[in-house]
Amino acid sequence: xxxxxxxxxxxxxxxxxxxxxxxxxxxxxxxxxxxxxxxxxxxxxxxxxxxxxxxxxxxxxxxxxxxxxxxxxxxxxxxxxxxxxxxxxxxxxxxxxxxxxxxxxxxxxxxxxxxxxxxxxxxxxxxxxxxxxxxxxxxxxxxxxxxxxxxxxxxxxxxxxxxxxxxxxxxxxxxxxxxxxxxxxxxxxxxxxxxxxxxxxxxxxxxxxxxxxxxxxxxxxxxxxxxxxxxxxxxxxxxxxxxxxxxxxxxxxxxxxxxxxxxxxxxxxxxxxxxxxxxxxxxxxxxxxxxxxxxxxxxxxxxxxxxxxxxxxxxxxxxxxxxxxxxxxxxxxxxxxxxxxxxxxxxxxxxxxxxxxxxxxxxxxxxxxxxxxxxxxxxxxxxxxxxxxxxxxxxxxxxxxxxxxxxxxxxxxxxxxxxxxxxxxxxxxxxxxxxxxxxxxxxxxxxxxxxxxxxxxxxxxxxxxxxxxxxxxxxxxxxxxxxxxxxxxxxxxxxxxxxxxxxxxxxxxxxxxxxxxxxxxxxxxxxxxxxxxxxxxxxxxxxxxxxxxxxxxxxxxxxxxxxxxxxxxxxxxxxxxxxxxxxxxxxxxxxxxxxxxxxxxxxxxxxxxxxxxxxxxxxxxxxxxxxxxxxxxxxxxxxxxxxxxxxxxxxxxxxxxxxxxxxxxxxxxxxxxxxxxxxxxxxxxxxxxxxxxxxxxxxxxxxxxxxxxxxxxxxxxxxx
Length: 720
Hints:
Blueprint: E1 2-4, H1 13-27, E2 33-35, E3 48-51, E4 57-61, E5 64-68, E6 73-76, E7 91-96, E8 102-106, E9 109-114, E10 119-122, E11 133-136, E12 142-145, E13 150-158, E14 161-166, E15 180-185, E16 191-195, E17 198-204, E18 215-220, E19 229-235, E20 238-243, E21 246-253, E22 256-263, E23 278-283, E24 289-293, E25 298-302, E26 307-311, E27 326-331, E28 336-341, E29 346-350, E30 357-359, E31 374-379, E32 385-389, E33 394-397, E34 411-413, H2 415-418, E35 426-431, E36 437-441, E37 445-449, E38 454-462, E39 465-466, E40 474-477, E41 482-486, E42 490-494, H3 497-502, E43 505-510, E44 519-524, E45 530-534, E46 537-544, E47 547-552, E48 568-573, E49 579-583, E50 588-593, E51 599-605, E52 618-623, E53 626-631, E54 634-639, E55 644-648, E56 659-666, E57 672-676, E58 679-683, E59 703-704, E60 707-708
Parallel strand pairs: 38-43
Antiparallel strand pairs: 1-55, 2-29, 3-4, 4-5, 5-6, 7-8, 8-9, 9-10, 11-12, 12-13, 13-14, 15-16, 16-17, 17-18, 19-20, 20-21, 21-22, 23-24, 24-25, 25-26, 27-28, 28-29, 30-58, 31-32, 32-33, 33-34, 35-36, 36-37, 37-38, 38-39, 40-41, 41-42, 42-43, 44-45, 45-46, 46-47, 48-49, 49-50, 50-51, 52-53, ...
């Protein structure tokens, strides 16, 4: 996205349900970004993810620790010859404490990374511990657990470095608990241990800020006795317990946990009837609950329905989750989810990604649109969506568009029903006032009769001779009786509907509008004036005595900006009656209209001041102050009052930047459709939100006279 310049709300139930529908609709088009070898990330399995106090991301893998600064990945590995390396390459857990120190758990002990010294230090815990998890309590003490071990540590700054106080193993060898997976503190600072043998609540001493606590009592939670527990999280007073046999939604009363509901399967019709295996439960910054599974991908909880939205790996979709086995998840300060998988690398999900949905041709899906180069779009009065593609015919949605199905429309390919030659390219789709659908191509004209569900190729004639009309880009009903058809020439067809039922021949009358090149767009303004956009500029006309009187646009203005010989792609009238003109190569023009309906002034906007590009293919109005433009460099949202713009491109979730002529439409439900080189883009402008979090600037390296200065190094002699 680029920007260019020139109290608590309580919703009634019905609004909550509508919101849930919209959330699910957008979810179907959420796009994941994958990180693998191509992006410089050289590991397939991620066991842990953490963000440090400076915003760096750290990834723990079976083959080392990796830091990501937003641009590059840097690996840290065990080196027997280096005193300050990590103690083992197999990283199992990462945790940032209250001082900003990064704790790294391995299969052979614990290390910390001291960011202000940029070095690793070993923590004096029994080095044979195979760390499973690291966490902090409310007093900032760090707890480390392993197979049947729990240690508590306290770090302190001493002369710029770090010293440690470390307890002995706090777990007695009574055999009651083994294979501890996780240590967790709830909102009341109660400690829980998730283990192979069940779930345990732990009473521990808390007296003294500087003292190390001891474990006083361990209470087994009967509801989960002898179950394999991977994780537990308290969210708004509800305890979510993740196991190998499903997810439990529970409440806590003393030492008893009451199960409210068990989610054993993703749905009742689960294809393989396989239990959900839960690795993690996570609450994001907005309060949404995400569930990581070891077999079903990533789930988002929908509380209104007590169900889940599923995100999973799809071999046919490069923007899907990279693997269905999720080991870990983290949300960074910029509202991005980082998802660590097994054998699938990293998947990145921007929660602030714009709500752009996309439809593309998929050769493996017979219900996809017919092609990716979209040439024309129509949502008809019954709500069916029509989409034509270059050389691939036309598709129509199988059911009317609504808020519930907008994200998963299925299309029927109508190419075989229309019987157009393979060389014919559909250039326009238009619905007249009686509900007939007119389809214009480079040489043919087809009419769809919705009352009998049939297509008919029609021939235009004058004095029983065929009217050779090419490049039919304009079809428009101008009054109750007449249809304007424009391409390389312009004709009017009067009262065609009865004739269409019985014949293929329609009588056409030319309007005497010649030598304009190709008519490419048409507009009737609120005053009844006609506007024609052609390959040679803009023409104006009036309808008088059944005839069209047309003349070249003449604007009385001093700046010298004209539309003579401009290639016009789009025309639109705003709420104030001004006419906006999209050109190919000359940007956007605004024609001011006076109280008498006369053009008196013209403004010009180009790539140099406001636009993403000077080829403006389509113009749609959001409200009285905002227009959306489709261009060769993405979509532009123009604030016409402040003369500022925001540009959206593939980085914001668009499937492509290159849009196309005549391929835009605004539906009655407020959906905007834009077509281009890589399919159809669909969105509601009100759902496109801006991410206003500004990134912080960090210095990651310092060189003086081409010599790199290490952290803590004396710079005397380098600086004068």
